[in-house]
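My hope is that you will study the protein record below before we discuss the fold together.
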Amino acid sequence: MNESTDVLVVGAGPAGLALACGLLLHGVRVRVVDQAAGPATTSRANLLHARGVEVLDRLGALGDLPERSAQGLVLTTYIGGRPVMRIRFGDPILGTPRPALVLPQTEIEAALRRRFAELGGGVEWGTGLVDARQDGDGVTAVLGGGRTVRASWLAGCDGAHSTVRKLAGIGFPGAPLTDQWLLADGHAGFGLGREGGHGWAHPDGPLFVMPMPSPDGTGDDLWRLMAYLPGATDEKLDEAEILEAFRRVVGERAGLAGEQLKDLVWASMFRVHRRLATGYRQGRVLLAGDAAHIHSPMGGQGMVTGMGDAENLAWKLALVVHGRAGHRLLDTYQAERRPLAAEVLRSTSATARLQIGDSPLLRLLIRWVLVPLFNRPAVQRRGTMAASQLGVTYRRGPLAGRGSRLGRRPRPGDRVADLACAGTRLHAELGGRWALLATGPGARLCEPQVSAALGDRVVTLTPDGWRDDEVWLVRPDAHLAWRGRPGSDGLGRWLRRASIHPEP
């Protein structure tokens, strides 16, 4: 007899784990499999922007990560050996008490695994997906060793080389953007300030050095290094060769003594690719994270985008699994998330090309136009908002409707800030729940209709100082679903647009 589950998630990275936690919070049965023998031990990404931190918070997975994060939210850029630009990230005016985290990806994943275990889940390591066949009622997945699992839905969170995507026949067009990069974490006595990262523009390509927290909480000499290699071949360097390459590069591009780089604790080489899946859904198969989009690591957008995919998908898939919404709701997942990924691909690709450009005209443009421009506080605030993804909106998406043209903010589709609500916070009450924001009379008028459609996964809150006679319905991913007057049919129209209906 086949084993069964509501959702089979393939891939135990940040996107897969966030999706699994979100589904369990919504009462959905989920299994997570990963072909790796165990959790990753190398740090890979090392920056999670504010939107991703909010996702961790709503999932209940944040824990003490902020206390262990490095305070690397400043980037100083050097040209000709002189500091010419200083960009700040994590500006508090962005409306979040959750600034970006500078931590190895391994620690983000460990926090998500702990939360997954608290919710009753566990990753099945050493278990790859071999085949998947779907029909009108579900998916039959064949795992390594010949085991089969019958799932209502299959979620591919298995990275750039996704087996799920290939089995579903979903295209992944794109192309490489640059030659190779070196990436490593190492101990060094560079004598650089650890209040933030450092980047050097150079005709041979950029070099970046960012402080990293020590895994054991002691010491302050661990750094993340990243350097572009012009004209590189497909030859792979071992760790000793990468160490020597970095010692040479930091001397040539930053004027630092190469021998100050003592050793490496991890090293890698990679090429920057830009690819976007032609679709995020094929029947009962869905994609999230790197399985759906890959791009330059410039700006640290990979992990935050994947976790945003997972949170958006979790509540929609849960409503469908529980029979409270039609399959049409899942089409809004691609409609809301794919345009964001396309914009991330455009912006990160442009940044990558700018960083590696070596023409005299481009160097003049950087020094005399872009550097003065990016030193302006207003420009930095806009850049920080974009990088943080706190400004992501679904106003133009299919769920926003006509309310998106209202002049008042937030508008349907916008993120709602973490409002204080009578001794609690809005985001702390979300995760696996919706929030109805209203005063007593408005709540009494709307609660029966909301409960009939969404069940008991709704919490009614009154934000501190709330004097509005409107009612807001906030989605589990903290975006505004609907706002309007209590007693009107606007809420019912929104529920019908979302294909959400009272439970039979």
Notes: The radius of gyration is 24 Å. The chain has twelve helices and 22 strands. The longest strand covers residues 261-276. Residues 328-356 form the longest helix (29 residues).
